[in-house]
Design goal:
Elements lengths: L1 H38 L6 E3 H11 L9 H15 L11 E3 H7 L1 H20 L9 H13 L7 E2 L5 E2 L5 H11 L9 H29 L1
Antiparallel strand pairs: 1-2, 3-4
């Protein structure tokens, strides 16, 4: 009975956090939508890095605190991905369309909330201290995280059996290809959260495939 009560408490807390996050995102979206016209004075429909920096500082950043450049990189990368474009120009001249930017600005708050985690992961897994994770380092990081999931985080298939996933070389190659925005062969701090999110999607797909196989066999 105590276990059931505890699980209900966790579920209620998770739902509360989801609702809080949704309200915060909606507030961010309203603030950004209010300011885009003021920053894009020429009404070009596109924003460069300097304009995005201004937008983040005015809506999500704290007054007097510089915008985190890794977080800014993450927003620009997500906007490019949303728009289906590749950043072919130098950072300060790269342009992203308004719609893609509006979709991606909330990623900055997400980055700020996880910045300490990103720094800890880099301190642990950036073995050669080059401010980027190569395929081997990224694979080791993800494999370690999978091996150390808590009981509540472990994945179970449709039969209720715990499944321990490990990234394959093909998984890591795919993540590197999709998330290495500047194509330097490394996952940098602005790309790490995107890479981990993509692994989570791959893991979900693997679990769905396993569940489907279990269902067909049964």
């Amino acid at each position: 009975m105590a276990k059931v009560i505890e699980e209900r408490k966790r579920a209620a807390e998770l739902e509360r956090r989801k609702e809080q996050l949704q309200r915060q995102r909606q507030a961010d979206d309203r603030a950004v939508a209010h300011l885009v016209g003021q920053i894009d004075k020429g009404n070009t429909g596109f924003f460069n890095r300097t304009q995005v920096r201004q937008l983040l500082a005015a809506t999500i950043g704290k007054i007097g605190t510089p915008v985190d450049e890794d977080g800014l990189d993450m927003v620009m990368t997500c906007a490019h991905q949303k728009a289906g474009t590749s950043p072919t120009l130098p950072k300060e001249h790269a342009m992203v369309p308004r719609a893609a930017l509006l979709h991606s600005v909330h990623k900055y708050r997400y980055y700020l909330c996880n910045r300490d985690r990103v720094n800890r992961l880099f301190a642990r897994w950036d073995f050669d201290l080059n401010n980027g994770l190569d395929a081997t380092e990224l694979g080791s990081l993800i494999a370690s995280q999978e091996a150390n999931l808590t009981a509540s985080q472990k994945r179970a298939n449709s039969l209720g059996l715990i499944v321990e996933l490990r990234p394959t070389a093909a998984d890591i190659a795919f993540i590197m290809r999709e998330c290495d925005a500047d194509a330097n062969g490394l996952i940098d701090k602005s790309e790490l959260l995107i890479a981990l999110s993509l692994w989570a999607e791959l893991a979900d797909q693997k679990m769905a495939t396993q569940s489907a196989c279990c269902f067909s066999i049964s």
